[in-house]
Amino acid sequence: MVTARATQRQDDDVGGQDGARKLRRRIEYRRSRLLQDAREVSELFAPHLAVLAFPAAGRPTLFGNPTVESVLRSFLPADNGADAGTETADEAAARVAAMRREAGSIEARVAQEEARLRAVAEMVKAAQEEQGREHWWEVDVDALDEAELPEFAAALDVLRADVLRRLDKLAKAPKARQQQ
Could you write out the three-class secondary structure of the chain? Predict the structure, then answer.
């Protein structure tokens, strides 16, 4: 009994460039699937994991958690000529954990700064509505607090740069039409 899968394999085994292309696609699919599975396992269970794939042609593919070198140094016997300065998997895991903690604190600071900037934008918007101005950049700066002024000035600088960039683009547009 021949199954659809067996028929597909028979078709894939056909020689020539088409068969070689199908083989490369199949190998690439399996390589990407292997790396995807390795990432998922390392995220779910945080093991010391190293995957090294050496294709017949092309560059080898490496994946390691925390790093390939640290996993290999921890689990393979060391040679006499081994570099003593290379970290083990546990040391690398501790370093990566510290980096993740630092990234978390940076994300928290970014969130605080974004909240502060939103509050400043709301205060400028309130001043704009209170003064009956059509645009935010027309707001009287005397109505703003000291904390809002640096942000207002930075926003004006961004607006100025944007206007200059658009003017430059408009100035170049007629020249391009004239050359055609």
Answer: CCCHHHHHHHHHCCCHHHHHHHHHHHHHHHHHHHHHHHHHHHHHHCCCEEEEECCCCCCCEEEEECCHHHHHHHHCCCCCCCCCCCCCHHHHHHHHHHHHHHHHHHHHHHHHHHHHHHHHHHHHHHHHHHHCCCCHHHCCHHHCCCCHHHHHHHHHHHHHHHHHHHHHHHHHHHHHHHHC
Distance in angstroms (rounded) separating the CA atoms of residues 9 and 12: 5
* 8-26 tens-digit pLDDT: 555 545 556 788 888 888 8
Residue 62 contacts residue 31 (beta carbons within 8 Å): no
Q: How far apart are CA 141 and CA 178, in angstroms?
A: 44
What single-letter amino acid sits at 158?
V
Residue 62 tokens, joined: 């490496």
Q: What string of H, E and C letters represents the secondary structure of 88-107?
A: CHHHHHHHHHHHHHHHHHHH
For 103-157, how does the pLDDT look when each residue is reduced to its tens digit (9 = 90+)? 999 999 999 988 988 888 888 888 888 888 888 888 877 877 787 788 888 888 8
